[in-house]
Amino acid sequence: MLKTTHKALADYLRAGYAGIYLTSHEESRVESELFSVATEIGFKLYTYTITDSLMGPVGHPNPKVWTNDKEQGGGPLDPVQLLE
Q: How many domains are there within the chain?
C-alpha cells in the first residue's frame, strides 16, 4: 500500500474509529498492512470475514476464533462483545 494509505489508516485508528471496513481483492495484503499499522501504534488487530468469522488477535501464536454457531449459543454480535 502507499505510504499515504498507511498514514491514513494510522490516523483513523488513533482518532478512535470503532471499526474500519475495507474491500479488496488482496485480503492478505490488506491484513498485512493493517497488522503493520496496528503494531506501530500499539493496537491489537482482530479480523472478521464471512468465511472465518471473528479472529484474533492477528500475529498471536494461537488466535481465538469465534463463530456464530448456535451450538455455542451466539448471535452475530456476541463475538464483538467478547473483544478485550
A: 1
Q: How far is CA 30 from the centre of its chain?
A: 10
Phi-psi sector, 34: left (phi>0), alpha (psi -120 to 50), beta? alpha
Considering only CA atoms, which of 65, 4, 69 is closest in space to residue 37?
A: 4
Task: Pick the more confident residue, 83 or 76.
Answer: 83
The pTM assigned to this predicted structure is: 0.65
| 8-61 tens-digit pLDDT | 989 998 998 877 788 888 888 888 888 899 899 998 888 877 777 778 888 888
31 contact partners, CB below 8 Å, separation of at least 6: 45, 47, 58
C-alpha closest to that of 13 among 37, 31, 48: 37
Residues in the chain, overall count: 84
